[in-house]
Write a structure and sequence with these properties.
- This protein has 478 residues and is α+β, with helices and mostly antiparallel strands.
- Among the domains are: 93 residues, no CATH class; 87 residues, no CATH class.
- Helix content is 64%, strand content 12%.
- The protein is built from 14 helices and 5 strands.
- A hairpin with a 5-residue loop joins strand 3 and strand 4.
- Helix 1 runs parallel beside helix 6, helix 4 packs parallel to helix 11 and helix 12 runs antiparallel to helix 13.
- It starts with a helix and ends with a helix.
Length: 478
C-alpha cells in the first residue's frame, strides 16, 4: 500500500535525523578528545578549577563542528539509505512509482537548511568560540604548576628555592620532618642551604604567602671574599637556630582573570571583518612597497630626469678609476662591493617580509572562503553518501562506516593538500578552498544518476556479469 506523501516525508526525515544526530555527537566527541590529548601538557597540573577546563571544552566543541558536520552527513546518509535498500524499502517505493529524486527531496530540504545553518554557525559562533577558547588556553598554559610539595621529592615550583621534605604527618599533613631548603636566588648558584629537624607549613589567610616555621636547624651560607686568593679556602658561615620563620610569595600561583581575551586572529573574524582586515593588510602592503621603491629611487637616483642623469654622468667620469691612485681606487671598489652586499641583504630581507605579508593576507581570504565552502561540501557529501548507500544496500555500522571513512579521508587529504598550496601562494586562496568541492562535485552527480537508474556498479554481481561478458567476447573472437 502506498504511503501518503506527507507521511512518507515525515518517515524519511525521522529515519535520517536519528543517525545524523548520533553520528554528529560521536564525531564531535572524538575530535574533542583529540584536541584534549594534543593540549594535555598545557592543562594538567596548573591548579586551575575544573569549570575553566569545562568551559574550554565547550568552546572546543564549537570549533570542531566544521570537521564533524560533513563527516556526520556522509555517514548518516550512507547508513540511512543503505538500511532502506537492505530492507527493500527503496525498491518498494520505486515500484510504486516514486523516483529516487522524490524520495530524497525532504532530506535535501533538511540538508539545505543545515547548510545555511552551518554557514551562520561558522560565521558568527565559531569566531567567538575560537577567540574565547584560545584566550583561555593561553592563560591556563601560562599558569605555574599547582603548589604541591610531596615528601621525599625536591620541589622547584617556587622561584629561587628548591625544597625537600623528608616526612609529612599530622591531621592536615602540615607537620614536617627533615627539611632541606636550597636558596639559589643569588646569581652565583646555591650559596645558602637551610636544614631543620622539624617544622610546620601553612598558608596565610589571604593565600599570598606560604609560611614555614622551622625548629632545631642550621643554615650554611657561602662567603665570597673580595680577594681572589682568599676564595680558594671556600669560607662559609654557619648559623644555628631553635626556631625560624620563612615566607615564600605565592603571587605566581594566583589564577587571575583566565578569561582575559587576546588579540583577534584571522580565525576569530566573520566574513565582513575578514574582508576589512584583508583590505587593511593590503593597504599596509602597498604602503610598505611604495616606501621601499621610493627609498631605492632616492638612493640610486632612478627617479631623476634625463638632464639630471646627464649631470650625474658629467660629475663622475667613466674612467674615474684610471685617474686616481691605486689605494683610492681599491678603497672605492671595496666600498662599492660592501654597499652592493648590504643592498642585496636588504632586498632579500624585504622579499621575505613581502612574502610573509602576502601569506597573512592569503590566510584571511582562505578563512573567508572556508565559511562558504562548508555549506557546499555538506551538500556534496550528502549527494555522494545517499546514492552510494542506495547502491550498496547495506545499513548499520559496518560497511557504511568503512566507506564513509574512506571517502572522507580522500576529501580531507585533498582539502589539506590544496589548501596548503593556497597558503604557500602557489595557487590563489579561492582555488585552494574551492578545488576539493569542485573535484568531488562530478562524482556526486555521477553516483546520483547511477542510483536513480538502479545501477549495480558497486555490487559484486555487476562485476561478475561484466567479467563473464568480457570472457565470452574473447572466446567468441578466438
Amino acid at each position: 500500500m502506498r504511503l501518503p506523501i506527507k507521511n512518507l516525508d515525515r518517515f524519511l526525515l525521522k529515519t535520517y535525523i536519528r543517525p545524523f544526530l548520533g553520528s554528529f555527537l560521536v564525531m564531535v566527541f572524538f575530535l574533542l578528545m583529540q584536541l584534549l590529548w594534543k593540549f594535555v601538557d598545557d592543562l594538567v597540573g596548573r591548579g586551575v578549577e575544573w569549570y575553566y577546563i569545562a568551559e574550554l571544552m565547550f568552546y572546543w566543541s564549537a570549533a570542531v563542528v566544521p570537521m564533524a558536520l560533513p563527516l556526520a552527513v556522509l555517514l548518516s546518509s550512507l547508513m540511512t539509505f543503505g538500511a532502506l535498500g537492505e530492507n527493500n524499502e527503496l525498491a518498494s517505493l520505486k515500484a510504486s512509482g516514486i523516483s529516487l529524486y522524490r524520495i530524497i527531496r525532504p532530506i535535501v530540504a533538511f540538508i539545505g537548511v543545515l547548510s545555511i545553518g552551518a554557514f551562520l554557525f561558522y560565521n558568527y559562533v565559531i569566531p567567538v568560540a575560537n577567540l574565547k577558547g584560545e584566550s583561555l588556553l593561553l592563560n591556563i598554559s601560562r599558569q605555574k604548576p599547582a603548589l604541591n610539595i610531596r615528601q621525599g621529592v625536591f620541589y622547584g615550583g617556587i622561584e629561587g628555592y628548591s625544597i625537600k621534605i623528608g616526612e609529612k604527618y599530622g591531621p592536615d599533613n602540615n607537620l614536617l620532618r627533615n627539611i632541606l631548603i636550597y636558596d639559589h636566588r643569588d646569581q652565583n648558584g646555591n650559596t645558602k642551604v637551610i636544614v631543620a629537624e622539624s617544622g610546620e607549613m601553612y598558608t596565610t589567610e589571604d593565600e599570598l604567602y606560604l609560611v614555614l616555621e622551622l625548629e632545631n636547624g642550621k643554615s650554611y651560607e657561602d662567603q665570597i671574599p673580595p680577594k681572589r686568593q682568599d676564595r680558594d679556602r671556600m669560607p662559609f658561615v654557619i648559623n644555628a637556630f631553635e626556631t625560624a620563620t620563612i615566607k615564600f610569595s605565592l603571587s605566581d600561583f594566583q589564577t587571575g582573570d583566565l578569561r582575559e581575551e587576546r588579540r583577534k586572529d584571522y580565525n576569530m573574524l566573520n566574513v565582513i571583518q575578514l574582508l576589512e582586515a584583508a583590505d587593511t593588510l593590503k593597504g599596509e602592503y602597498d604602503k610598505r612597497n611604495n616606501d621601499i621603491v621610493s627609498n631605492l629611487r632616492d638612493r640610486y637616483f632612478f627617479h631623476q630626469h634625463a638632464e639630471d642623469a646627464i649631470k650625474m654622468d658629467s660629475l663622475i667620469p667613466i674612467d674615474y678609476l684610471s685617474r686616481v691612485d691605486y689605494p683610492s681606487a681599491l678603497r672605492a671598489v671595496q666600498n662599492g662591493v660592501r654597499i652592493a652586499r648590504l643592498n642585496k641583504e636588504q632586498i632579500s630581507t624585504v622579499g621575505l617580509e613581502f612574502t610573509w605579508r602576502k601569506r597573512v593576507i592569503a590566510r584571511h581570504y582562505i578563512e573567508y572562503h572556508k565559511k562558504f565552502a562548508l555549506s557546499a561540501i555538506v551538500l556534496i557529501l550528502f549527494f555522494i553518501g545517499a546514492p552510494l548507500g542506495a547502491i550498496i544496500r547495506k545499513g548499520g555500522m559496518g560497511v557504511p562506516v568503512v566507506v564513509s571513512v574512506i571517502i572522507f579521508i580522500i576529501y580531507h587529504v585533498l582539502n589539506i593538500s590544496i589548501e596548503k598550496l593556497g597558503r604557500e601562494l602557489v595557487i590563489s586562496p579561492m582555488e585552494g578552498i574551492w578545488l576539493p568541492p569542485l573535484i568531488l562535485f562530478p562524482f556526486a552527480l555521477l553516483i546520483t544518476r547511477q542510483a536513480a537508474n538502479d545501477s549495480g556498479i558497486l555490487q559484486a554481481e555487476f562485476y561478475k556479469q561484466l567479467g563473464m561478458r568480457i570472457r565470452a567476447f574473447f572466446t567468441k573472437k578466438k
